[in-house]
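Ticket #4471: structure export looks truncated?
Reporter: QA, pipeline team
Priority: medium

Steps to reproduce: submit the single chain below to the structure queue and open the exported record.
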Amino acid sequence: MIATAAPVAVSCAGVTKTYGAGQSRVTALRGIDLEVREGELLMLVGPSGCGKTTLISVIAGILDHDDGECLVFGENLRALPQARRTAFRGERIGFVFQQFNLIPTLTIAENVAVPLLIQGRTWRSSIAQAREFLDRVGIGDRWAALPSKLSGGQQQRVAIARSLVHGPRLIVCDEPTSSLDHETGHKVMELMKEVAAGHDRALVVVTHDARIFEFADRIARMDDGKITGLTDRRNKEPER
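Actual output as written to the record:
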């Protein structure tokens, strides 16, 4: 019996992105073609400045690309009115920023609860679910602390919990283990792998951390704004 391919979660075709104009013009993406399938954990690797963060920002609808097409679960986010795009991201996309982007005046439980509150959940249920996810990333005992009272690694775990708490279909992560020790990084990736394994979900991770490559289903290599190679780790062979 031939296994059927999983549905496509993200489809990028000919995606380009430039910054600036004239002599200061910088081309970040040069015709990106990439698919991410449901149930998949795909890692983007490559040298700093090659366009990885720009690409995931386009996929998540945070940046508009210039040309080409990028669909997320069949939806062209660039074509949506801003209010609908924001609502789509709030419901279906979780994003782990490299700089964490925690709200300094809120406790870490309140930070994690924000996506649930945006969806209209009650305060009590949102905080309860936030504390559950803080437990899952190993920092539940600090739920009442402000971000400034936590180490960088602890703040990173808060950001990861926030990206997962509302059950998004697509999770996009920029260096999610950069501030974590080996053991904690593996625990976090096990959690993310578990979440991404859902048949209607997908996970895209930008990383330089070779320690977590084992969690990838596929690894896409980037350089100079292009996808230069794609390896299926399930087959242990390069696709192209």
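Status: closed, not a bug. The export was complete when the record was re-opened. Leaving a note from the reviewer for reference: The domain at 41-53+81-238 is CATH 3.40.50.300 (Rossmann fold).
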